[in-house]
């Protein structure tokens, strides 16, 4: 993934980016017009960027409502002419996605942008156009751009874009968006942003600590910057200038941090992204079109309205059946009624667009529900035994494959293989316990009356057990024993 640093139309910004080693820079033609284009010659990108820099061009207007339809058409024509003049130095050109209408946009795509370069053109998809339009664009164009508001609004984009990448090989580009929560989920080829200017324009602090990208608002800059002294110095920046709130030095820290993030993503490391700012994701309206951006994590929906009880229904992951039962009340009256019984449901809520295995599923079909169901029923002992037998067979194959992988990796004992073996033994033990038929009786008897427990259990027989055999000793026998003892 490439991070495109927008703002290259400003010479001071371009100088900061080039000195920091940035290789992907974005230029907004609208801002070039507002700053004033040369009147005696063309504005050539080749005169302002070195050959190693990849240049992305766009024509983002902050507020189109300020322009009439004729002015929008005139601006679009001028933008297309400028792109043609600089076509040899433009790596990617993002269309002018204006409010001129779908018919005008399609005509522009077919006439101008295809001639410019089919593989360098990025049409923009908006969530209001629907998933069918996204599918059509992904099938027709090698590159498709998605604007920031659409990424925030459409929660199904992660699964849909992954499936389209697998199906058509389309490259998706985030236009004016740098939200950490979505950056990990959607397979973007590039992400363009002005967020790197936030330290200069609003006093924020953006820093990469080696594992996470942290972003702090202005009110936290003192404590945040002091915390990362070692990181700042290792990046080759002046720590004292950053503490003194030097705008250039703090911006250099942000550029360096985004470059570290880009490098970690491209090297296969999945970084942990953290954003401690509850404020804007970009330094102005250039990326949001006048809409107040929000880069916080997805919020819980706390403002809930009570639904009509008649519209409530059971969770579709469960099935509900009825069973007739007979009940007796306290007066001995028998009542027959139907009671609900919970059971499993074979109906699946999985959808191909958002399925976890959409990339590899042989039955994948866009905008369809899952082609498979899992008709499992366990209501008898035989069904339970069959299920356990199946689980044992599955686990046995996992153990065999784990052992195979262990051998291929040199034969060194793998703790994962040992864990799978332990799981197999536990399943076998449970199966064995299920098949055993044990019958035993365990009794605990206690009594505190004078008669004792034995009298309670055996009655008069217990009294005879306390008597000595042969009716005990007579008086004569006792006297004889005493006299013998005295002698």
Helix percentage: 40-55%
Average pLDDT works out at 79
Low-confidence stretches: 271-282, 285-301
The total beta strand count reads 14
In what order do the strands lie side by side in the largest sheet?
5-4-3-2-1-9-8-7-6
Strand content: 5-15%
Terminal residue distance: 115 Å
The Cα radius of gyration reads: 39 Å
How would you classify the quaternary structure? single chain
- Biggest beta-sheet profile: 9 strands, parallel
CATH topology of the largest domain, what is it called? Answer: TIM Barrel
Q: What class do helices, strands and sheet pairing give?
A: alpha/beta
CATH architecture of the largest domain: Alpha-Beta Barrel
In total, the number of domains comes to: 3
| Count of separate DSSP helical elements | 18
Describe this protein's structure:
It is a single chain. The protein is α/β, with parallel strands linked by helices and 487 residues long. It folds into three domains: 2-273, TIM Barrel (Alpha-Beta Barrel); 387-439; 452-486, no CATH class. 41% of the residues lie in helices and 15% in strands. The protein has 18 helices and 14 strands. It has helices at residues 11-19, 29-35, 69-85, 102-117, 131-140, 148-153, 157-168, 180-183, 198-202, 221-227, 229-234, 239-243, 247-266, 381-408, 415-435, 452-458, 460-466, 475-486; strands at 2-6, 24-28, 54-58, 92-94, 121-122, 124-125, 143-147, 171-175, 188-193, 205-208, 212-216, 272-273, 318-328, 334-344. The protein has a nine-stranded parallel beta sheet. A three-stranded mixed beta sheet has the order 10-11-12. The radius of gyration is 39 Å and the shape is elongated. Mean pLDDT is 79; it is low at 271-282 and 285-301.
